[in-house]
UniProtKB/TrEMBL annotation:
This is SCP domain-containing protein. One of its GO terms (cellular component) is extracellular region. InterPro entries: Allrgn_V5/Tpx1_CS (IPR018244), CAP_dom (IPR014044), CAP_sf (IPR035940), CRISP-related (IPR001283). The keyword Membrane does not apply. Residues 1-21 form the signal peptide. It comes from Hibiscus syriacus.
Length: 180
């Protein structure tokens, strides 16, 4: 065996061992029920977005949402309309609506989990936000019992941020109304 042959064998072994450890880590993550962190926003599916919503709904005993292409299309059209200013301004359409500014590698599901950080602020007994005002309104839209359908979109703005919008039907984030 020449020195070059030996080097090739060693490099091949290194690659095989590395692959083994990557596959092993993915299997480990699957076993513990953790989301693999490597999912690229471009690979995100409606199922991923539904799952993010439905986990928070299940926590409070509310039935899961289903994906609706009409809503996804509506969200897409509005997101495209905002790419030049990326403004967190509501579309004033007929649907419930959550907006967020996202990073290049953050998914829509990440935005859903971000909205849901308002959960501790919601008081289910009164149906109000503990902080007063409507600061838990993103969370209440996620878990609203009367909402059954969702569709979301994500578009890159000219300033480099990502515009994230989810549209909900029937609208559930109505101030003064209990979410569930
Ligand atoms: C999807 O959403 C649209 C718009 O709100 C609604 O009219 C339609 O019934 C929904 N589709 C389904 C299958 O629920």
């Amino acid at each position: 065996m020449t020195k070059i042959d030996l080097a090739i064998v060693l490099i091949s072994m290194f690659i095989i061992l590395s692959l083994h450890s990557i596959v092993g880590n993915a299997a480990e993550a699957a076993k513990s029920g953790e989301e693999p962190k490597s999912k690229h926003p471009k690979e995100e599916t409606p199922e991923d977005i539904l799952k993010a919503h439905n986990e928070f709904r299940a926590q409070v005993g509310v039935p899961p949402l289903v994906w609706n292409e009409t809503l996804a299309k509506y969200a897409q059209v509005y997101a495209k309309k905002r790419v030049n200013d990326c403004k967190m301004e509501h579309s004033m359409g007929p649907y419930g609506e959550n907006l967020a500014g996202g990073y290049e590698d953050s998914t829509i599901a990440d935005s859903v989990r971000f909205w849901a950080t308002e959960k501790p602020d919601y008081d289910p007994a009164s149906g109000k936000c503990k902080s007063g005002g409507f600061d838990c309104g993103h969370y209440t839209q996620i878990v609203a019992r009367k909402t059954t359908n969702v569709g979301c979109a994500r578009e890159k703005c000219t300033n480099g941020w990502y515009y994230v919008i989810c549209s909900y039907y029937p609208a559930g984030n109505i101030e003064g109304e209990k979410a569930y």
